[in-house]
Every structure is written in structure tokens, then in C-alpha cells.
């Protein structure tokens, strides 16, 4: 392990790194930083929570002069929350150097962003849609950009941002450094890389498993209708410090958050139909611990870094293995341990096996927590809370009444009553969630899948590309879209090299995704939010809708 001092960084950047508490570079940082400092293009892949942000952030910051008043670096990220978070980390890393950075994302008042831009930030961190908005309004010019980073590049492609990214990158001088980072690198990323990177160096830190090593992964088989009961028992049994519960759709998230609140949990929901103010408020509450369960769609799956997340619970299995890897990667970050649980309905067992195959990790089957375990867990937490108060010692006001009570009642009985009160059982409230259809497993090539990016063995394409019409679609990814019709290349490329002949990312791609291409980014003039959620009918070709993407 290297210390940051060994990279020859300027003192002000080193000071910021020290201030952040980073002592040694993580493996991806150790490999990327020296390469990136030479100006080389880079494709960086490393497990979730291993410091990719600083891996591109530190070299990017090192290149910029404080006196410059132009936009010199552009970082793109798939979701608003991630753009905000990356911008905060960049802000911290460049603090002592005195650089200016600004987050640009949909849903925020554009006037405010324009005012921010007038302060001449050198670094812009944004979601593609809103960035384009500014470009079209001429409030952002990219003529001087020297460094471009695509964080979670594969997700941005998956969300249908290819066109936007292409448009944006064409406005950036060719003479630039481009870096692309993610924990997963599906082969389709090669297409983007070929187009926009110049002789990129691949830096990958991927051991046998792609998911982070410190995450304990388990699943319980549970029928759809018992999931909520299972969830509340699980939370009681495990008493997470902070937990993220992933639901498949926005409606699911709303219902779940409400149900949890009804049962007395401190929970709230996050998805793309909330206003940006609501989204910000929920994230703030979760980060400061005033709620301890965040219920979210996949909008929270990528990149989010909240310390104290001890548990990730897949209330609904994600459609793709990549998403599984990213979701569970919200815990077990920066060397900490974490636990991931997945609820699997009997009909989804095949899908779970697919996830295991692709991630090359056995997920341990565990029994549904029993009522007794749940009660025990809750009582343990209550007892801990009680003892904390005992230790705090400020109890004099209560001693008089306690002595009186003890004269009349048995001490065990009294304490038990206090415990009962504190434990606050609200089990009686009846909870009914609208059932979700099970996710169906798709066939998918077995080799190298999400960890590849190097070996073009056509794994994704091979046995799947048969149903999709125009040659290359219809594969795993293609089916996920409501009406993919084979028009997008997805992962499959007819069983040969990535990028060859897949031809799927053209015009139809975005439209196919959600039928409202311009609405995704919620830019001011891009219609504030997307169409209302409609439940996919069971006859839909899109078996289970991943949340409408939003950013
Ligand atoms: N060298 C380091 N030492 C200690 N902590 C670090 C170091 N580098 C980064 N971190 C911290 O580790 C956490 C995870 O970093 P980061 O969010 O960059 O991970 P990531 O690799 O981008 O994960 P993901 O794939 O989920 O996006 C952050 O809280 C970050 O501040
Ligand atoms: Mg990241």
C-alpha cells in the first residue's frame, strides 16, 4: 500500500487528503493516480466502496490552476444524488487549493445554477440531461475542458444517455484526458471507449468476486405476500445502524416506506417522482441518521456513499446482476463490513442463481427470521438504549417515583413494563402491499460477464441474441426494456466482439427506454418530471420494470 505522499502531489492536495482521514491509497487509487497524472486516458474498474471518486478526483484536481476562470474539468454521473455527492468530495479534495466546483443536475432551479456558473467554476459535476440544457442555453461552454470523467459510465449508457454523452463529448476539445470509472464494466462500454477514449489504459482491481469482499450475502426464500412481515422481522432481528431497502418500483417504495412508518420504524422513501427538494431532504435525513431505513428504487443503487449503512435489503430482487452488485455495494464500504439480504420468491430462485453465477459468489440461504428472533432483537436494542441512559447517570428526577413504585411492585415486573413501553410494539397495524410480479431469469452468457471489459468472448451475446429482431438485441438487456424490439445492442453483439455490429445505441435507444426521452433529466424546459408511473401489465414484454430512471 502506498501513502499519498508517494505520488508527488502538491502539498495543498495532500493536506486535503489528510484532512479527509485517508492514510493509504486504496488499490485502485494506487494504480490510477500515477497513470492519470501522466495525462493518459483511463478505464478504471474496482469494487464498490473502494475509493474510485478520489482515484479520478485527485489527479483531476492536481491539473487545475486556481487562477483559471474556465471550465477545465467535466465529471458526468448518472443520478442527481451522485452528482451532488461527487461534487462534495471534489469540493473537499480541492479545498485547500481553492478550486471552484459546481454540481449541475435536473430538478434544481436553473437560475441558481446559472448564478453558480457566474462564479467561474473550474470543475463541473453533472448529470447529462441538465448539462445539455446548459450547453443549449450557452450557459456552459466546454471549449476549454481538459479532463472528462464518466462515473458509472455503464449505468449512464444503460439509462439511455449514450446520445447525450456523445453530444456533450463532441463539444469537448479532442485534446483532453478522458477517464471512465465503474465497479462493473459490461462489454458495451467498449463502444463508448473506442469512440471517445484515446488509447486508454485499463486499470482494474477485480479479484475473483466482483462484489466487495466485506459484504456478507444471504437470501431468504419468501412468498411475495409475506415479504413485509419478513422485512420487519429482519430489521428487528438485525437492528441495523442504517439500512437501505431496495424496492422495484416507485409505487413499491412509497407503499413500503409508509408501511414501515406505520409499524413505528424511522423510514422514508427515495425515488424519481419526488421533487428534488424532497429527494434532498430524504438524503439529508438519512445521512444525519434522523431516519435509519432508506427505502429506494435503483436511483440509490449507484455510487452513493453513506457511512453507517450496515445493511442492504433487496426487498425485491433487481433485474440485473450488475444492479445487485451496486445495490449491495452501498454497504461494506471503505474497509467496513456490511450485510446484504435478498428476498427471493419461490419463482425467482432461478434469477437468484443467475446473479450468483454472474457475480461468482454464493449467496447463503438463510431461514426466515422467526418471531422469537425478531422479539429478541428488538428487546436487545431496547435494553441497550436503557443501559445507555443508566450510564448517562442523569436520573435523579426519576428516583423518587421509582422508589415509590418499587415499594408496591416487583422490580422485574416494573422493568418488564418499562421495556414493553420502550419497545413500542405496533404489530397490530395491518399492512397490505400491492404485489409485484416475480422477476424472470433471462438466459445470459456465463463467462466474464460484468467483470470483463477485457476479454471479448461474446459471453453476453451468444445464446441470447435470438429473439430480438434486428440481429443484436433481444438479449438480456434488451428484454428489460418495455419495447426493445431488438433495436438496442445491449450486451449482446451477436456472439463476437463487443461493439461489433451491435449498432443498437442509436436514436431509438432512448425512446425505447421510457417513451419520454427528453423528460429524464427534469431540466427546466425538459418537462419537469416524467409521465406518471403506470404498472407494467402482465403481458408487457418488459417483465418487471426497473424503476424509471431519473436524474
Ligand atoms: N484512501 C482512502 N482511505 C480511506 N477511505 C477512503 C480512501 N479513499 C476513499 N475513501 C472513502 O471510501 C468511501 C468510498 O469511496 P467512493 O465513494 O469513492 O467509492 P467507489 O469506489 O466510487 O464506490 P462505488 O462503486 O459504490 O461508486 C468514501 O467514503 C471515501 O471517502
Ligand atoms: Mg463511485
From TrEMBL:
Its EC number is 3.6.4.13. Residues 433-551 are annotated as: Disordered. Residues 2-30 form the DEAD-box RNA helicase Q domain. It is found in: Cytoplasm. Pfam families: DEAD, Helicase_C. The keyword Acyltransferase does not apply. SUPFAM superfamilies: P-loop containing nucleoside triphosphate hydrolases. Residues 33-203 form the Helicase ATP-binding domain. PROSITE patterns: DEAD_ATP_HELICASE (PS00039), HELICASE_ATP_BIND_1 (PS51192), HELICASE_CTER (PS51194), Q_MOTIF (PS51195). Residues 456-510 have a biased composition (Gly residues). DEAD-box RNA helicase possibly involved in RNA degradation. Unwinds dsRNA in both 5'- and 3'-directions, has RNA-dependent ATPase activity. Belongs to the DEAD box helicase family. CshA subfamily. This is DEAD-box ATP-dependent RNA helicase CshA. It comes from Paenibacillus odorifer. The lineage of its organism: Bacteria, Bacillati, Bacillota, Bacilli, Bacillales.
Amino acid at each position: 500500500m502506498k501513502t499519498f505522499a508517494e505520488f508527488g502531489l502538491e502539498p495543498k492536495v495532500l493536506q486535503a487528503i489528510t484532512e479527509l482521514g485517508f492514510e493509504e491509497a486504496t488499490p485502485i487509487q494506487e494504480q490510477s493516480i500515477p497513470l492519470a497524472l501522466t495525462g493518459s486516458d483511463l478505464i478504471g474498474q474496482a469494487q464498490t466502496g473502494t475509493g474510485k471518486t478520489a482515484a479520478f478526483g485527485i489527479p483531476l484536481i492536481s491539473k487545475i490552476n486556481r487562477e483559471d476562470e474556465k471550465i477545465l474539468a467535466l465529471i458526468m454521473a448518472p443520478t442527481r444524488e451522485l452528482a451532488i455527492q461527487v461534487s462534495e468530495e471534489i469540493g473537499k479534495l480541492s479545498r485547500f487549493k481553492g478550486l471552484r466546483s459546481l454540481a449541475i443536475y435536473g430538478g434544481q432551479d436553473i437560475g441558481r445554477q446559472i448564478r453558480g456558473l457566474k462564479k467561474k467554476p473550474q470543475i463541473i459535476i453533472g448529470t447529462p440531461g441538465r448539462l445539455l440544457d446548459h450547453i443549449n442555453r450557452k450557459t456552459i461552454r466546454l471549449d476549454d475542458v481538459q479532463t472528462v470523467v464518466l462515473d458509472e459510465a455503464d449505468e449512464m449508457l444503460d439509462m439511455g444517455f449514450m446520445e447525450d454523452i456523445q453530444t456533450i463529448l463532441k463539444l469537448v476539445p479532442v485534446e483532453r484526458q478522458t477517464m471512465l470509472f465503474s465497479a462493473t464494466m459490461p462489454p458495451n462500454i467498449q463502444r463508448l471507449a473506442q469512440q471517445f477514449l484515446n488509447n486508454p489504459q485499463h486499470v482494474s482491481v477485480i479479484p475473483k468476486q466482483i462484489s466487495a469482499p466485506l459484504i456478507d450475502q444471504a437470501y431468504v426464500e419468501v412468498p411475495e405476500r409475506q415479504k413485509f412481515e419478513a422485512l420487519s422481522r429482519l430489521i428487528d432481528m438485525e437492528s441495523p445502524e442504517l439500512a437501505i431497502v431496495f424496492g422495484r418500483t416507485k409505487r413499491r417504495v412509497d407503499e413500503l416506506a409508509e408501511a414501515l412508518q406505520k409499524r413505528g420504524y424511522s423510514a422514508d422513501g427515495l425515488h424519481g417522482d419526488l421533487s428534488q427538494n424532497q429527494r434532498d431532504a430524504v438524503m439529508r435525513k438519512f445521512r444525519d441518521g434522523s431516519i435509519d431505513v432508506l427505502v429506494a428504487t435503483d436511483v440509490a443503487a449507484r455510487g452513493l456513499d453513506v457511512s453507517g449503512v450496515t445493511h442492504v435489503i433487496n426487498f425485491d430482487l433487481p433485474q440485473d446482476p450488475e444492479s445487485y452488485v451496486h445495490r449491495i455495494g452501498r454497504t461494506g464500504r471503505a474497509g467496513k463490513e456490511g450485510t446484504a439480504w435478498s428476498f427471493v420468491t419461490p419463482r425467482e430462485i432461478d434469477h437468484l442463481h443467475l446473479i450468483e453465477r454472474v457475480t461468482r459468489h454464493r449467496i447463503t440461504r438463510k431461514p426466515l427470521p422467526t418471531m422469537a428472533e425478531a422479539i429478541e432483537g428488538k428487546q436487545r436494542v431496547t435494553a441497550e438504549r436503557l443501559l445507555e441512559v443508566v450510564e448517562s447517570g442523569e436520573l435523579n428526577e426519576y428516583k423518587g417515583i421509582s422508589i415509590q413504585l418499587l415499594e408496591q411492585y416487583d422490580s422485574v415486573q416494573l422493568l418488564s413494563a418499562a421495556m414493553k413501553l420502550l419497545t413500542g410494539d405496533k404489530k397490530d397495524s395491518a399492512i397490505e402491499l400491492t404485489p409485484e410480479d416475480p422477476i424472470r431469469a433471462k438466459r445470459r452468457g456465463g463467462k466474464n460477464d460484468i467483470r470483463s471489459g477485457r476479454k471479448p468472448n461474446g459471453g453476453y451475446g451468444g445464446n441470447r441474441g435470438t429473439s430480438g429482431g434486428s440481429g443484436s438485441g433481444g438479449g438480456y438487456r434488451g428484454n428489460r426494456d418495455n419495447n426493445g424490439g431488438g433495436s438496442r445492442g445491449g450486451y449482446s453483439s451477436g456472439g463476437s466482439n463487443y461493439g461489433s455490429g451491435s449498432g443498437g445505441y442509436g436514436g431509438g435507444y432512448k425512446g425505447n427506454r421510457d417513451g419520454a426521452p427528453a423528460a429524464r433529466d427534469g431540466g427546466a424546459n425538459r418537462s419537469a418530471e416524467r409521465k406518471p408511473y403506470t404498472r407494467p401489465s402482465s403481458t408487457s414484454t418488459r417483465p418487471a420494470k426497473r424503476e424509471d430512471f431519473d436524474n
